[in-house]
């Protein structure tokens, strides 16, 4: 039975059925409803786990790190500044190969302070060795959290995973969600059995000093594991479909791409708006489609090239930018097509930063601009009045 | 030629949970204290350690000196990592399986990690936190920390023609710990090994968060002879500059009295290169007087004579 719920509750319900042992968190808007819901579940004895309120996000990430090293399934959630404050520990989680799952309620990064949505926080963690998914809607979000544990805890993978949900748009947006049945989740997600954990019966050293003779290979291994995670992510999503009867995972999602000539590429909740815009374009006789990037790390380079092989024009719409370089998603897609003679024309539009609303018209305008090839790192909907008073 | 008589007289090998062969400097007070603490705690102990000398000298991959489960994550989070371990054991039904010790140097404890430490105290985790106080950032080359003593020369609080070195007194970390309402706080030194081990055993017999600060002489950073570590540790106590005591539920319950063994601070300062500048200029006498005042204050406050 479907229930109407916020994205935050969709995350909490998913975490609950994954039976975590330890949750540690620190509040930050717009992540708060996720951890409030979980705290209430613990208070009502619906969820049996240790819930730790820490003194900072840094502390929260450190608590789940210790818990995971002791053999526990652990969860945390954060956003924006909180995710950045966790940053040092998040790199550490990856390096120590601890499969903690986190939700990130995507929000802009200060300064100037702004609590609204974009995806620059997640982008800042892209090089950490953390698997990252982006959800389009609350159902997908719910399903991705459960799949995230399967992928992260796979003995061949053993890496942390962040499930991204757009701040306010999903965290506070209500949608119908089919909550996964506990019995089925127990079949789909076996109890966490780490290869190594802190145990007095088998004392081991975790987090040793790696000198130049050893360190580089650890990075090679994570890079190799990221490659191995790509087929596993596809496999897990198929297994999820088998168990729960719906497909809501995998590296990419294609929308109206069969005969498409121009394809939008984006991540997160805005994909829904883009799909509407594509429906409108189709009505006008334009052969447009959408390619949704669900797995940002590992970056599905080969799957993207394959999906876009007959496409003439690719329009990358993104809520993240590497200041001083340009669009991040677009950069990675251009990289994927390097020296490929079939490479499509790639346009890049930056939009929706700091919660700037994205109406369908803006997407249609980007489409027209791409057609005219006015397309190099273009910011959508810049306000002249604001430009006059900012620097 | 083998001397059979001599071989017989060889003392028995004492097995320690911190294996020999690690890379600590000769005379390292921290290595000595760590071994004493771990052996007092026993094999059923999980240890979380911050970044610092102790971590670096004991775990160069693929070697490790630790015969107990041991984890290092970052510079400032051993208290939070230990908290995660503690709640995980509870949730996994493994509570009581092991003592949990979190530890770090004075910089990791008093400066960069004080937030996590305060959180661990306030939440009431059943963890013993050990601060190895060698009074500066030794691992990075003797930079000043919040626990560097008054007038000490460090590389970032150097003495010079217009400087007497570090111009602040030690952050009162045992009092800060006690103010959290935790059941047990103690100060010890590697200079009194039996006292140190007794405090560890007592701490581990008490449920809840515990704080133990251990004066850990550093021959390299303090510039004294490696063979004098025990002596320096004792002089710190006997001069009143580093009183050792216990606090239970916020009240001082035990102090080590000085009695006739009391020494002037000069006896502690003079052998250490970090205080040498106090003895090379005539005005240094006034500085030594100021340090004596700090010691006198400690002695009076804690009733050490």
What would you note in describing this structure?
The complex is a heterodimer of chains A (391) and B (305). By secondary structure, chain A is α/β, with parallel strands linked by helices. Chain A has helices spanning 7-17, 32-43, 57-69, 80-95, 120-124, 138-153, 182-188, 215-244, 270-283, 301-307, 328-336, 360-371, 384-389; strands spanning 2-6, 22-25, 50-53, 74-78, 101-106, 131-134, 161-166, 174-178, 205-206, 252-255, 262-266, 288-293, 295-297, 313-318, 321-322, 326-327, 345-350, 378-379. Chain A folds into 2 domains: 2-244, 3-Layer(aba) Sandwich (Rossmann fold); 252-389, 3-Layer(aba) Sandwich (Rossmann fold). Chain A has 13 helices and 18 strands. Chain A starts with a strand and ends with a helix. The model of chain A has no long low-confidence stretch (mean pLDDT 97). Chain B is an alpha/beta fold and 305 residues long. Chain B has a single domain (15-302), classed as Rossmann fold, CATH 3.40.50. Chain B is 37% helix and 15% strand. Chain B contains 12 helices and 10 strands. The longest helix of chain B is centred in the last third of the chain and has 19 residues, at 284-302. Chain B is globular, with a radius of gyration of 20 Å. The chains are: A alpha/beta (391), B alpha/beta (305). Strand 9 (205-206) of chain A pairs parallel with strand 2 of chain B, so a sheet runs across the interface.
């Amino acid at each position: 039975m479907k229930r109407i719920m916020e994205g935050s509750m969709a995350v909490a319900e998913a975490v609950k059925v994954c039976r975590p042992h330890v949750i540690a968190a620190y509040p930050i808007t717009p992540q708060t409803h996720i951890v409030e819901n979980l705290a209430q579940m613990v208070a009502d004895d619906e969820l049996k786990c240790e819930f730790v309120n820490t003194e900072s996000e840094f502390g929260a990430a450190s608590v789940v790190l210790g818990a995971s090293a002791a053999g526990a399934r652990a969860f945390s959630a954060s956003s924006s500044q909180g995710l950045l404050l966790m940053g040092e520990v998040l790199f550490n989680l990856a390096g120590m190969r601890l499969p903690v799952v986190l939700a990130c309620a995507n929000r802009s990064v200060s300064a100037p302070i702004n609590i609204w949505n974009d995806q620059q926080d997640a982008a800042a963690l892209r090089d950490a060795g953390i698997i990252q998914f982006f959800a389009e809607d609350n159902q997908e979000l719910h399903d991705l959290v459960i799949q995230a544990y399967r992928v992260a805890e796979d003995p061949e993978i053993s890496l942390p995973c962040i499930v991204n949900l757009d701040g306010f748009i999903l965290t506070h947006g209500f949608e119908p969600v089919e909550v996964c049945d506990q019995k089925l989740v127990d079949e789909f997600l076996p109890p966490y059995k780490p290869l190594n954990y802190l145990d007095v019966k088998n004392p081991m050293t975790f987090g040793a000093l790696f000198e130049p003779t050893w360190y580089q290979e650890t990075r090679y291994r994570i890079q190799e594991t990221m490659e191995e995670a790509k087929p596993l992510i596809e496999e897990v999503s198929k297994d999820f479909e088998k168990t729960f009867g719906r497909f809501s995972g995998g590296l990419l999602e294609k929308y109206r791409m069969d005969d498409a000539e121009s394809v939008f590429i984006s991540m997160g909740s805005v994909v829904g708006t883009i799909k509407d815009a594509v429906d409108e374009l189709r009505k006008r006789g334009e052969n447009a489609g959408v390619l949704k990037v669900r797995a940002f790390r590992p970056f599905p380079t080969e799957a993207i090239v394959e999906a876009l092989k007959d496409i003439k024009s690719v329009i990358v719409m993104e809520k993240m930018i590497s200041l001083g370089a340009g669009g991040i998603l677009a950069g990675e897609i251009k990289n994927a097509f390097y020296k490929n003679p079939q490479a499509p024309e790639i346009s890049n539009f930056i939009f929706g930063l700091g919660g700037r609303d994205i109406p369908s018209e803006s997407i249609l305008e980007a489409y027209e601009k791409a057609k005219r090839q006015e397309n190099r790192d273009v910011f959508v909907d810049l306000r002249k009045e604001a430009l006059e008073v900012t620097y | 030629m083998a001397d059979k008589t001599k071989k017989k007289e060889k003392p028995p090998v004492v097995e320690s949970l911190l294996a020999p062969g690690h890379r600590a400097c000769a005379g390292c007070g921290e290595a000595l204290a760590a071994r004493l603490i771990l052996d007092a705690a026993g094999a059923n102990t999980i240890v979380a350690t911050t970044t610092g000398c102790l971590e670096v000298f004991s775990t160069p991959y693929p070697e490790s000196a630790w015969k107990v489960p041991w984890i290092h994550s970052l510079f400032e989070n051993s208290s939070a990592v230990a908290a995660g371990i503690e709640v995980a054991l509870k949730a996994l039904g493994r509570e009581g399986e092991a003592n949990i010790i979190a530890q770090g140097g004075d910089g990791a404890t008093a400066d960069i990690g004080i937030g996590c430490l305060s959180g661990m105290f306030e939440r009431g985790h059943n963890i013993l936190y050990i601060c190895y106080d060698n009074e500066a950032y030794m691992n990075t080359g003797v930079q000043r920390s919040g626990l560097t003593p008054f007038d000490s020369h460090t590389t970032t609080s150097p003495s010079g023609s217009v400087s007497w070195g570090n111009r602040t007194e030690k952050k009162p970390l045992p009092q800060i710990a006690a103010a959290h309402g935790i059941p047990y706080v103690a100060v010890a030194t590697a200079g009194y090994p039996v006292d140190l081990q007794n405090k560890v055993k007592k701490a581990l017999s008490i449920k809840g968060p515990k704080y133990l600060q251990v004066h850990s002489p550093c021959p390299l950073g303090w510039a004294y002879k490696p063979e004098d570590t025990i002596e320096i540790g004792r002089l710190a106590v006997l001069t009143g500059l580093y009183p050792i005591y216990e606090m239970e539920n916020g009240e001082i319950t035990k102090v080590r009295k000085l009695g006739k063994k009391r020494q002037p601070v000069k006896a502690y300062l003079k052998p250490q290169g970090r205080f040498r500048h106090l003895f090379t200029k005539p005005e240094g006498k006034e500085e030594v007087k100021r340090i004596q005042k700090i010691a006198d204050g400690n002695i009076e406050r804690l009733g050490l004579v």
